[in-house]
Design a protein that fits this description.
Helix content: 55-70%
Strand content: 15-25%
Order of helices and strands: HHHHHEEEEEEEHHHHHH
Strand order of the largest sheet: 1-2-3-4-5-6-7
Length: 369
């Protein structure tokens, strides 16, 4: 008889899951609507000085940005939805009756936890690739219309490709790789073009270094269009690049699919560049389902106290406050991982693990004293 009483039926599980998902849909869409309005206003402000950027372009950019923003606000949406769902079920005495029937808090939370886990898995495996495509398109439009940059950078299996513009014209540079210890580029080929994009010559060099205001080539062969080959020990080519903004010019991890990130990280490291930012983003994606489950437990910690202590507004506000604290804590740990102060795996997984341990320990304290 006791075993029957403590077993959560499928009907009740589906009821709790449906209730949570409906709350999640409402909260998620509401937050995204607010974010969309804010992004549109900000883009209108930025485009005010660009006469060629119309309202249609601004709205397109705002919409393209939303899938990436959806990934950012997802933990908050799950937290708010769980708070609303559990608070309502508690105030209507449905949870009181459920728990009086011998169903533990862990059984009652299981449907919401499974929903959060499925949402996290969907976000990582399916939604993230879709969002990365739209984010890449948004960044292209942003560079084209609002933040134009003359330097274009790409890395592939063959090495580094860079296009840069100067007062004299433009150039396309290819390097086989870079030695991180000496910060020297190796196997350099540069194609030179004038302001009308006509080919004017080629530079081959064994090594190159970025010095203030120029590329410094060593063991150089210069071949001008229709001219003889010049062999020089060194040669300087003007540039406004530095090693720092060169590293920052790689494709943002948000513009890359979860499935493409491991290969890109391998290519980046093979070329001699740091893939810290991309590796950290990959691990944060992997940790996100666990983080969403932790948000459900944190929400339950505060919502379920209503049956014993009252004060709906104060306790719900406490849950939101803890959620924001965890968010800023996550940002701090992420920044430490990005700077290399702590290992990537520790930086990516710590926020989810700490949140989960907090929720579990508080629920144990409430249930078992």
């Amino acid at each position: 008889m006791a075993a029957i009483r403590t077993r959560l039926s499928l009907t009740l599980s589906l009821y709790f899951a449906r209730h949570f998902l409906l709350q999640f849909a409402g909260v998620f869409l509401s937050i995204l609507l607010v974010v969309l309005i804010g992004d549109t206003v900000e883009l209108l402000r930025r485009s005010a000085s660009h006469e060629d950027v119309g309202l249609q372009t601004v709205l397109t950019m705002a919409l393209l940005k939303q899938p990436n923003m959806a990934q950012i606000v997802l933990p908050f949406a799950v937290l708010f939805a769980a708070l609303l769902s559990f608070t309502r079920l508690t105030r209507t005495q449905e949870l009181v009756v459920t728990r009086a029937a011998g169903i533990s808090v862990w059984q009652f939370l299981l449907p919401a936890l499974l929903c959060a886990l499925l949402i996290g898995g969907f976000r990582v495996t399916l939604f993230n690739p879709f969002a990365s495509i739209l984010t890449a398109r948004y960044e292209f439009l942003e560079r084209t219309h609002l933040d134009w940059s003359a330097n274009l950078l790409a890395v592939s299996d063959t090495g580094l490709w860079l296009r840069q513009s100067t007062a004299e014209g433009s150039s396309i540079l290819h390097a086989e790789g870079v030695d991180q210890s000496s910060q020297e580029f190796r196997g350099i080929i540069v194609f030179l073009y004038d302001q009308e994009e006509r080919f004017t010559g080629r530079i081959d060099a064994m090594r190159a270094r970025l010095v203030p205001g120029a590329w410094q080539f060593s063991a150089v062969s210069i071949r001008e269009e229709g001219g003889a080959v010049q062999l020089l020990d060194s040669y300087r080519l003007a540039t406004d690049l530095t090693l720092e903004n060169l590293q920052e010019s790689f494709a943002a991890p948000e513009t890359m699919s979860f499935w493409d990130l491991p290969r890109f990280i391998s290519i980046l490291e093979k070329a001699g560049f740091s893939a810290q930012k991309h590796r950290l983003y990959l691990h944060s994606l992997l940790a996100s389902p666990l983080l969403l489950c932790a948000m459900v437990l944190v929400a339950a910690t505060f919502s379920l106290r209503l049956t014993r202590h009252g004060g709906t507004l104060a306790i719900a506000s406490g849950g939101l406050l803890v959620g924001f604290i965890l968010y800023f804590f996550s940002d701090l740990i992420y920044a430490l991982g990005l700077s290399g102060r702590i290992p990537v795996t520790l930086s990516a997984w710590t926020p989810a693990a700490v949140s989960l341990l907090f929720g579990v320990s508080m629920l144990f304290h409430l249930e078992d004293g």
